[in-house]
Amino acid sequence: MDRIKVLFVDDDVALGNIVTLALESSGYEVHYQTSLVGVKTVAKEMQPDIIVLDLEIGTKNGIDAIPELKLVARETPILLVSSHLDSENLVKALEAGAVTYLKKPFEMVELQAYINRFVKPFRAKGIKLGMFHLNIEENLLMKEDEVVKKLSAFECKLLKLLMLNMNEVIHREQIEQEIWGDFVTESSEQSLNNYISKLRKYLAEDNRLELATIPKVGYKLSDGTL
């Protein structure tokens, strides 16, 4: 199973380093940053499984960033952390899309429990695609409660990437890096072609969906909404 990806935004550098090291040593993949600058771009590229967001980040309010983050990571749970949060801000955070609030200072086991609690149902619920949804936890392409296909790990990674970038062209190089990382080889190109062909067959039942090849560039998954 893929490592849980955590985007952690907090301007307390000492706390940030401690949390990052602790989570990474426990097997999580962490991107830590001290400001909201570029955080929307990071969230879009990283597609984290959860976002841990401080309430006060410099002179900025973390709650104000939630709607922007939701535009690029729609289903990703956002956990707000703060040493002080009044009821008014808590209500605003929940209305903006945060799933809950964790009070500082917190123990690492407490943070990990919150992360695991919200990531597991997020992965199991998966990402909706036309008549389908992708169960990331078990690599299953589903239609309601019916299993359409048990995907390989590579197929699931590829379909997830395409779904999270719906109606956008994704370059082959980006796909290969996402799937194989540093292990891209000459055979990866043919393997990618084969995976694309298989995904087309799996999705063929929904005629609103189109997985198009963009010659010499990459691929684009469309759902007919644009």
Q: Structurally, how many domains make up the residues?
A: 2
Rg, alpha carbons: 19 Å
Q: Which geometry do the CA atoms define?
A: elongated
Helix content: 40-55%
- According to CATH, the homologous superfamily of the largest domain is Response regulator
Reported by name, the CATH topology of the largest domain is: Rossmann fold
Tally of DSSP helical segments:
8
- Which strand order spans the largest sheet, edge to edge or round the barrel? 2-1-3-6-7
Structure write-up:
- It is a single chain.
- This protein is of the alpha/beta class.
- The chain has two domains: about 5-125, 3-Layer(aba) Sandwich (Rossmann fold); about 125-220, Winged helix-like DNA-binding domain superfamily/Winged helix DNA-binding domain (Arc Repressor Mutant, subunit A, Orthogonal Bundle).
- Helix content is about 45%, strand content about 25%.
- The chain has eight helices and 14 strands.
- The strands form four sheets. The protein has a five-stranded parallel beta sheet with strand order 2-1-3-6-7, with helices on both faces. It has a four-stranded antiparallel beta sheet with strand order 8-9-10-11. Strands 12-14-13 form a three-stranded antiparallel beta sheet.
- β4 (about 55) and β5 form a beta hairpin.
- The longest helix is centred in the middle third of the chain and has 18 residues, at about 110-125.
- The radius of gyration is 19 Å and the shape is elongated.
- The mean pLDDT is about 90.
